[in-house]
Design goal:
The protein is α+β, with helices and mostly antiparallel strands. The chain has 2 domains: 134 residues, Ubiquitin Conjugating Enzyme, CATH 3.10.110.10; 129 residues, Alpha-Beta Plaits (2-Layer Sandwich). 31% of the residues lie in helices and 21% in strands. It is built from 8 helices and 12 strands. The strands form 3 sheets. A 6-stranded mixed beta sheet has the order 1-9-6-8-7-10. The longest helix is centred in the first third of the chain and has 18 residues. The chain is globular, with a radius of gyration of 21 Å.
């Protein structure tokens, strides 16, 4: 097993209580989305994640509902096909309510791009986003950057004319990440953790509260993509506690999974200070044991696990 020291520290708590004027931010988001709709007006060029979210945000901006009832955020995907590139890719945008006073959550989907180049593209894109001054809408600038720079990244379609089939990188590495967070409270993070796992066909679980933990398993490429997205969110502390990797060749992936699907687990929630809450760690240990992972408990918490029935 690898023991990576991958860790992210951020002074930012969940942004839901940041003091930003959310009304002003959401008004800007609606204006930006309308602008992007006019730019990408052909059928299928822009796809809204959840039409209900857009309706509720408009209702909040118009004063028809209170913020406490706004449980969705604006998310959409845009198809981008620069003239000097054979690649069509998707830019996925998920906007925190505080955007543009905070950075947007943005990543790309490019199935015809090699693994290394796609990773490099996303890393360079994130560096560009970090360089943009906060407070102004920036998605048009992001799209322009992609259109101007996509040609720099080789793709699997860039094969010799004599080759009849594109060369596809075969992923034979099974990967399992054990992730630890200072806390997981945000309803948006909790939704992302689940939705991204389902999208990338990963199995595992998440445990919200303080601390928050998660496990994802599957082929290495989607697991790496999952971690790449997750660490771009705002965290007080997020780290990979353990990374397990096995070359399974052509073996059936399901034989190596410890979890049948991905779900959020809740074990007898107990309240704490403010909005803090904690899970019954004895029952969490029993859950880990039932999936052949009882040893992970000590790695997370520094003590041996005990069943909830043991005092």
């Amino acid at each position: 097993m690898d023991k990576p020291n991958t860790e992210i520290e951020d002074v930012d708590e969940d942004m839901e209580e940041s003091g930003v004027n959310v009304l002003d931010m959401l008004e800007l988001q609606l204006s930006e989305y309308e602008m992007l709709q006019s730019m990408f007006s052909n059928a299928g060029e822009i796809k809204l994640d959840d039409a209900t979210a857009l309706v509720k945000i408009k209702a909040f901006v118009e004063g028809k509902i209170k913020y406490e009832y706004l449980h969705s955020r604006l998310g959409f995907a845009i198809k981008i096909a620069p003239e000097d590139s054979e690649v069509t890719m998707e830019l996925v945008c998920q906007l925190p309510h505080e955007y543009p006073s905070v950075a947007p959550v943005v990543f790309t989907r490019a199935p015809k791009m090699s693994r290394s180049d796609h990773r490099r593209l996303n890393e360079d894109l994130q560096n560009f986003i970090v360089s943009i001054e906060r407070g102004e809408i920036c998605l048009y600038s992001v799209i322009e950057w992609i259109q101007e720079n996509l040609h720099k990244y080789n793709t699997e379609s860039d094969v010799s004319e004599s080759s009849q089939k594109p060369q596809v990188e075969e992923d034979t590495i099974f990967t399992r990440l054990w992730i630890y967070s200072h806390h997981i409270y945000s309803k948006f993070k909790r939704r992302d953790i689940i939705d991204w796992a389902e999208e990338l066909k990963l199995t595992g679980f998440s445990l919200p509260g303080k601390p928050g933990v998660a496990c994802v398993e599957g082929y290495s490429r989607p697991v790496d993509e999952y971690w790449h997205r997750l660490r771009r969110l705002n965290w007080k502390r997020l780290m990979v506690k353990e990374k397990e990797e096995t070359d399974i060749g052509n073996d059936d992936l399901s034989k190596h999974r410890k979890f049948a699907n991905f779900e959020e687990k809740v074990f007898d929630v107990r309240g704490g200070k403010g909005r803090e809450y904690h899970m019954d760690l004895g029952k969490f240990y029993e859950f880990l044991e039932s999936h052949g992972s009882g040893h992970i408990f000590q790695m997370y918490f520094g003590v041996e696990g005990k069943n909830s029935s043991v005092s």
